[in-house]
Design a protein that fits this description.
heterodimer, A: 264 residues, alpha+beta, Beta-Lactamase, 2 domains, five-stranded antiparallel beta sheet, 11 strands, 26% strand, elongated, B: 268 residues, mainly alpha, Arc Repressor Mutant, subunit A, two-stranded antiparallel sheet, 2 strands, 67% helix, 3% strand, globular, disordered N terminus, disordered C terminus
């Protein structure tokens, strides 16, 4: 572990803990779902069909939408093409912008084009929320991005790969969170001793920042940051002009914390 | 999550988004006519029922009924009775030109230019922000879209331009800009990119899309905005010229009459 001289612990430790407080419970739920889906898929002598899978996933995700202050926009399981074919067992809450301000009518299933021959079909295995966890075998946070096809919401997508028998990728489980709500939960807890704190994703995009000059969605530009994000071997380090900024990866989320003086 | 899974469905969602303001029957009619002419609603597709349509658009049932009735008269939908009944889109694209010409005649030059200004404000700033906020992965996604859009026909080119503009708007990371982009495309997309009827314009459009991507790569926001705004301006100027031609035609065929649009229906 590389720690900047003069620091016994990285100044961003508390921030990393706060981030874990927000995201770890969500990933724990995803781990449970992955486990249950895998068990259903691996039952000897019984083949899981789409209808049964959908029923199982709907039961799992339904509770996510119960909390009226919660930040879950959508949740579900997306099948690997060689498992159930192209299939999304995905549900949306009744309260998002796409419902047009109409009274929430519970949750609704997301209808997608699952026939590869149709013009509007899209290979989802090329998208970040699938591609990255499928490659690394680990949890991943995609976004923030404007999910204009689905909900119009500014979204973070948390995904986790699901394996059958420990090696065969059968899909990903995921949850879409509202960035607005994440900001409300997270910003009050970000404190690194008076300097500005910015949480970025693995592309250097700002998720939230206490620096008024840094917009969510903007790319954080600091000398050396791109190289640092590409080379993931340093859990903590310093960077920027005069090494005035400290940098720390947030566990296995793919997020990182940067703390340092706000630009004048 | 399903970012980009349902290409094209976003404009569909915008079509059935609630309407506000006065002249609602006309707005309902305009929006559905555009969606049909634009090909967002396909030939043979079943429309929501009167009650459902009214609920989705936030208008009275009688308003939705009135709009559907005019669509029927214009041969854009037909109604089947019985258990499998409902209103179905009947439009194969053959009469699109007539309908589009009607709109050209109905819009004043001032209205067209103002639409251009409004759309430039949205799409131009979206492009400028995108130059600052697009990551390398975003750029390759955009290039992928450009490589896979077909500019062979006016319809394909217009859909391609719609998708491209929407993707650029999404790169701005602003939900409001994206929503406004969608709304403008759903309501005015068919009119705005009418110039793509011409093969040369389609080539030019593709070239501007490529140049815009190059500006995003170079993180040159001013250039991205300028390309976008001048593309919109050119398109509006094309519309105004096309309108002038139509008006002249109207004057020479209808002796003494002014250029008021003739309500033509598409052939069934």
């Amino acid at each position: 572990m590389t720690i900047a001289p003069g620091h016994t612990t990285p100044p961003t430790d508390a921030c990393v803990a706060s981030i874990a407080d927000v995201f770890d419970p969500v990933f724990s739920r995803l781990e449970q779902w992955a486990d249950l889906v895998e068990r259903s898929a691996a039952r000897p002598g019984r083949v899981l069909d789409r209808a049964e899978l959908d029923l199982l996933v709907e039961k799992l995700v339904r509770a996510e939408f119960d909390d009226s202050n919660g930040c879950v926009i959508g949740a579900g399981f997306v099948s690997a093409p060689n498992f159930m074919g192209w299939h999304l067992a995905w549900w949306l809450g009744g309260k998002n912008a796409a419902s047009g301000g109409l009274p929430a009518a519970g949750i609704r299933h997301l209808e997608t084009v699952e026939d590869p021959l149709e013009e509007s079909f899209r290979d989802y295995t090329a998208l970040e929320w699938w591609r990255v966890p499928a490659r690394t075998g680990r949890r991943h946070i995609t976004g923030p991005y404007v999910d204009y096809l689905c909900t119009d919401e500014y979204t973070l997508t948390l995904t986790l790969p699901v394996y059958r028998g420990g090696s065969e990728l059968i899909g990903v489980v995921g949850i879409d969170l509202s960035v607005d709500q994440i900001e409300r939960d997270l910003v009050p807890r970000l404190d690194a001793g008076g300097v500005a704190v910015t949480i970025i994703n693995a592309s250097g995009r700002v998720v939230v920042s206490t620096d008024a000059h840094l917009a969510t969605g903007a790319l954080l530009r600091l000398p050396g940051l791109t190289e640092l994000l590409a080379d993931r071997t340093l859990p903590t380090t310093t960077l920027g002009r005069g090494n005035a900024h400290s940098f720390q990866w947030c566990g296995r989320t793919g997020l990182a914390v940067v703390a340092g003086p706000a630009p004048g | 999550m399903p970012q980009s899974i349902r290409a094209g469905s976003a404009t569909r969602a915008a079509i059935f988004a609630p309407l506000d303001g006065a002249g609602r029957a006309e707005l309902v009619l305009q929006r559905l006519t555009d969606a049909i002419v634009l090909g967002v609603l396909h030939d043979g597709e079943r429309l929501p029922s009167e009650a459902e349509l009214a609920r989705q658009l936030g208008v009275a049932t009688v308003t939705a009924r009135e709009a559907l009735e005019i669509l029927r008269r214009n041969n854009l939908v037909h109604t089947k009775r019985g258990r499998d009944g409902g209103s179905f889109v009947t439009f194969t694209g053959g009469g699109a030109t007539d309908l589009q010409d009607d709109r050209l005649l109905a819009w004043s030059r001032v209205q067209m230019r103002d639409l251009g200004v409004h759309y430039s404000a949205i799409a131009g700033l979206a492009a400028e922000l995108a130059a600052d906020r697009a990551s390398a992965a975003d750029i390759s996604n955009l290039e992928h879209i450009l490589d896979h859009t077909d500019a062979g026909t006016a319809d394909a080119a217009r859909r391609g331009q719609g998708t491209f503009r929407l993707e650029v708007a999404a790169l701005s990371q602003s939900p409001r800009l994206v929503r406004e982009e969608l709304r403008l495309q759903a309501e005015f997309g068919s009119l705005l990119w009418l110039s793509l009827r011409e093969p040369l314009r389609r080539e030019r459009c593709k070239a501007v899309q490529r140049e815009t991507v190059a500006a995003l790569v170079a993180e040159d926001g001013a250039r991205a905005r300028q390309l976008t705004v001048s593309q919109i301006t050119e398109s509006i100027e094309w519309l105004i010229e096309a309108k002038a031609v139509l008006e002249q035609k109207g004057r020479s065929t209808m002796t003494g009459s002014t250029s008021s649009p003739v309500p033509t229906g598409a052939p069934a």
